[in-house]
Specification:
The protein has one domain (2-75): 3-Layer(aba) Sandwich (Rossmann fold). 23% of the residues lie in helices and 15% in strands. The chain contains two helices and three strands. A three-stranded mixed β-sheet has the order 1-2-3. The protein starts with a helix and ends in a 41-residue tail after the last strand.
Length: 100
Amino acid sequence: MYDALVFNKIKQVLGGKVRIMITGTAPISKDVLNFFKVVFGVPIMEGYGQTENAGACCLTHETDPRTQHVGGPIGSCKIRLRDVPEMGYLATDKPPRGEI
């Protein structure tokens, strides 16, 4: 019922043909992400990467329903966590902390 009355109107604002959404550059709030998942009914993937590696190095899988994580590394990337002792960040911390 909500699809017909409300959500289809919102979908039409973006042309009505959205098949997938991808977000990156900064964490998206859990509430906003869940709202978009409900409204658009399409997979929303979150990505993480650094300019130095030409964009995304991690990406959530399109079938992953969880929020607030960026998924695992894509096939062509390896990720290493380095200690930053001057900030008290150690890869041996529980949970691990450091610089990617």
